[in-house]
Amino acid sequence: MQRIKYAIVLGLLTFLLSALPARADIIQTQTFGPFFPPQTPVLAFNQYNGNIGDITGIVIDLSITTTGGLAEVDNESGATTATVSFGTQAALNYFSSTVTVPLELVLNVTKAYVSQTFNLGADDGDGIGVQSGGADYGVLAGGTVSSLSSANVSSGVWAQYVGAGTYNIVLDASTYLNVSASGSVSQGSSPPTASGYVTVTYQGAGGGGGSAPEPASLVLLSSSLGGLAFWRYSRKRKKGRGSPEA
Fold first, then answer.
1. First-last CA distance in the chain
2. Does residue 69 or residue 11 have the better pLDDT?
């Protein structure tokens, strides 16, 4: 008899736990490229077609990958050291996107690049501008490098992401070239290819996640747990008095 009761309680608990709302994330990813920057790709996403109360957070990821290209420097003064950083960069466009995007991904540019320091000889008289060759010249070949940035959407604008339609997120992608030198150095580049993706994650939205269990379910669950605990306690007391088990 006791074993039957134990099986019934376990079955009830399993049913209740399976009936409680599960938490999950809904993830959308849109890719862009490869292309030669500058470009302003427009990426379309589906709104969350559910209750805004289901959402516990909205996160946007921006990934940029640079491949190939080259950067050149030509010294126009005395011998100097020049550090060259070269690749691609991207940021979300606040004004062109049809939803309010995180300022962290607007103001903080995501950069993917390679870097090298050159010891450049004095100008060899080859004129102003980049002239290849000579001790005053340096070239940096672009590699394949990726960089990822993430930011949370402010809860005050979540309503823009909820509905039955779509919205656009626009990004600005461009070549990144930075030259740091003590003297006068000309610079130039052949653009790399840029590619990447933007991901929007609705946290806690899948399967009705984010909503609390109904009060009646909580009462039933707590009652079952209490009954199980009492039954186990009574069983131990009977065994202690030498009562036979069923």
1. 6
2. 69
* CA–CA distance, 63 with 103 (Å, rounded to integer): 16
Say if CB 43 and CB 89 are below 8 A apart: no
Rounded-to-integer distance, Cα 200 and Cα 161, Å: 10
- Cis upstream peptide for 41 (omega within 30°): no
The DSSP 8-state label assigned to residue 133 in this structure reads S
Residue-wise DSSP of 114-168? EEEEEEEPPP-S--SS---SSTTEEEEE--EEEEEEEEEPPGGGGGGGBSSSEEE
Question: What pLDDT is stored for residue 196 in this prediction?
Answer: 98
161 closest CA partner among 110, 111, 102: 102
Asked if 65 and 145 count as a contact pair (C-beta separation under 8 A), the reply is yes
How many angstroms separate the Cα of 149 from the Cα of each of 59, 89, 160, 193, 217?
11, 11, 22, 19, 41
pLDDT surpasses 80 at 224: no
The pTM assigned to this predicted structure is 0.75
What are the backbone dihedrals phi and psi of residue 227, each rounded to the nearest 5 degrees, phi first? -65, -40
Domain boundaries, the chain: 1-20+213-234, 23-210
Give the mean model confidence (pLDDT) for residues 103-125. 97
